[in-house]
Design brief:
globular, mainly alpha
């Protein structure tokens, strides 16, 4: 499975744990809800600056999210 799929899965889990909808994350990050959905399902890759903006509503530093992804993927 590509790393981007794992990153999207971890992001989705964290978003749900914070009880945030995709719509709320979209509003807080200024990223389209449809793009968030595609990212979470591993159907769309994202640029690093977009990834950083997505981490803001989760109160998570991007590097920490990547570490969590590595633990899941490997």
């Amino acid at each position: 499975m590509p790393l981007s799929t794992h990153v999207g899965e971890v992001f989705r889990r964290l978003r749900q744990a914070k009880r945030l909808s995709q719509r709320e994350v979209a509003r807080l990050s200024s990223i389209a809800r449809s793009d968030i959905s595609l990212f979470e399902r591993g159907k769309q890759r994202i640029y690093l600056d977009t990834f950083e903006r997505l981490c803001v509503p989760l109160d998570r530093r991007p590097v920490l999210l990547l570490i969590e992804t590595e633990e899941l993927a490997y």
